[in-house]
Amino acid sequence: MKRLGLTLAAALVFSVSMFAEGVQDNNAQKWNGSINKSKLTKYLNLSSNQHEKVADICDYFEQEMTRANASKTDNKEKVRKAVYGNLKLMKQTLDDKQYSNYVRLMAMTLRNKGIDLNEAK
Q1: Which of the two residues, 77 and 1, has the higher pLDDT score?
Q2: Which listed residue, of 8, 54, 64, 110, carries a Cα 20 to 30 Å from 101's Cα?
Q3: What confidence score (pLDDT) does residue 113 get?
Q4: Residue 22 pLDDT > 60
């Protein structure tokens, strides 16, 4: 059982490293929200219908993050809204297990990118 847990943890860490594209920079304003859709599709084991919807959601998320980062006022609040909007759309598209994995992946990616959603409140 311990071996299975370690294997799953290693797989999750590997997937997180492949999830977000771009240069690793701990400045929240640098990440535009780009997501490698093909690797996400493989990680979540999406159907073709889900893949199309998730690709659209990822494109929309990237646009919202770009707008939020370009904003001169309330930058952190707009990033927070973009992330929670993305999670809401994903919840409608993914099944429970896929969504759980996606939330975990998003949380780790945000942490790696230096984005703290609690700070924006």
Answers
A1: 77
A2: 64
A3: 85
A4: no
Q: Which two tokens stand for residue 47?
A: 């159907």
Higher pLDDT, 73 or 20: 73
d(CA 20, CA 95): 22
Tokens of 1: 């059982």
Contact 51, 90 (CB under 8 A): no
3-41 per-residue burial string, b: 16 or more CB within 10 A, e: under 16 = eeeeeeeeeeeebbeebbeeeeeeebbebbbebebeebb
Whether residue 72 is predicted with pLDDT greater than 50 in this model: the reply is yes
Phi, psi of 24 (to 5 degrees): -75, 105
